[in-house]
Amino acid sequence: MGGIGAAKSMAKPISIILLVSVLATVVVSASAAGCTGAGGERMYESSEWRGFHMRFGSHDDVPNLKRVIIEYLIPMGVNVLILEVNTNFQFKSHPELSEGAHTLTHEDAHELAALCRANGIRLIPLFECLGHQGWGGAPNSILRGYPEWDETPHVPVEAEWPTIYCRSWCPLHPEVNPVIFDLMDELIEAFEADAFHVGMDEVFELADDGCPRCAGKKKSDLFAKAVNDYHDHLVTEKGVEMLMWGDRLVDAVGLGYSRWDADVLGIYPAIDMIPKDIIICDWHYDKKAAYPSVYWFFRKGFRVWPATWNDPDAAMAFMEFAYDAREKLDMKDGMLGMLVTGWNATGENLLTALSGGDLGKDEGNIWGIATTLRTVMDEYKRKSAD
Predict the structure, then answer these.
(1) In 3D, which of 282, 309, 295 has the Cα closest to residue 368?
(2) Residue 383 has what pLDDT?
(3) Which residues, listed in sequence order, are joined to residue 195 by a DSSP beta bridge?
(4) Looking at the domain 49-385, which fold is it?
């Protein structure tokens, strides 16, 4: 993969950029929809999910994100954007749970939704459920506002890994779901969404002996209960599609993964206790000879959306393996596409990386994210145009 490309002029009117981007998208989509393969090489369809994810919650950074969408994501052919908002939003239903004054507003959400919708991008909000309620022992706004919901209240705030990775809320506390469902509903309305991502990755704090409700219970049962609660609300009641990260549903020992991208705590049997219409985002960021979790989820009856991060070689290895698995198991409808995650990216630094600007030390490897995104999307375009 070569350079990210020349910087675009800041002075160019947004309306002109938008028009050019829309025309580029139409050309790419038309080509992808009508192409035929040569020499038996794999083909990709324009309907496949070509996704990008980023954790995003800054009102001040919205103009940069709009430029990223207009100048880069649309021409690349990205057709799904996951915005991980979490509590970085000006909630009206529970304003005490908003992280700060400069987080996203309802107007920001509506504007981003309109921009994406006008350009064929499905915008899906992500709200971390159960785990990732802060970092280390430090709680987020939810557990600061409702400390009685904490699964591990005995763990000091200053604690760090390996004492604790991230706090969880208690899945059996009767007051949790009504509030969380209010937040979900508000994000669905604000982003005008027809799908919702509930997160649920890297859950380590579950069935803690110090929790009066969860102590002694099976971690898999508690995890499945939480998933089913969210599914009942989102899919059954709200009529939206539900997505989640898949790592806690993967047996790390049996399938050869780490404690991060798979489960070592006995949570994974929950896979047999949850609805099959949930879309599983199966994330693995290292280059491996095989990614057996793809077969695992296919054979369990789930649709799979493989997710990569900031290593182009790892992304291509995962992409190739996943599509081979789809063909071998005849799971055309089970393999949705590819998702590139943008951990550490902001609208500002991603715009800098994509435009070939100077990132300095680039401690978040934003250059790697930008390069991986281009590599995956270029692969779709290359195969579609052959």
Answers:
(1) 309
(2) 75
(3) 241
(4) TIM Barrel (3.20.20)
Q: Which is it for strands 337-341 and 138-139: parallel, antiparallel or unpaired?
A: unpaired
Per-residue CA distances from 231 to 237, 254, 377 (Å): 9, 27, 31
The string of DSSP letters for 114-182 reads: HHHHHTT-EEEEE---SS-SEETTEE-HHHHH-GGGBS-TTS-TT--TTT-SS--B-TT-TTHHHHHHH
Q: How far is CA 285 from CA 51, 241, 259, in A?
A: 15, 25, 13
What is the DSSP track for 23-80?
HHHHHHHHHHHH---STT-----TTSEEEEEEE--BGGGHHHHHHHIIIIIHHHT--E
Whether the pLDDT of residue 15 is over 70: the answer is: no
- Cα–Cα distance, 222 to 147 (Å, whole number): 20
The answer to whether the beta carbons of residues 116 and 81 sit under 8 Å apart is: yes
Which pLDDT score, from 0 to 100, does residue 44 have? 53
At 100 the pLDDT is 86
Cα 352 to Cα 367: distance, rounded to the nearest angstrom: 9
d(CA 385, CA 36): 8
Instruction: Please name the residues in contact with 150: beta carbons below 8 A apart, sequence gap of 6 or more.
Output: 133, 139, 143, 167, 168, 169, 170
* Section 202-208 average pLDDT: 98
Q: Is 318 exposed, middle or buried (0-12, 13-18, 19+ CB in 10 A)?
A: buried
Token output for 171: 């899945």
Across 323-333, b (16+ Cβ under 10 Å) vs e yields bebbeeeebee
More confident residue, 80 or 27: 80
Q: State the amino acid at position 304 in one-letter form.
A: V
User: Hey, what amino acid is at 238?
Assistant: K
Let me know: does 143 contact 167? Beta carbons within 8 Å: yes
Instruction: Say whether pLDDT at 82 is over 50.
Output: yes
Copy the structure tokens of residue 368. 């790697």
Q: What distance in Å separates the CA atoms of residue 129 and residue 124, rounded to the nearest whole number?
A: 15
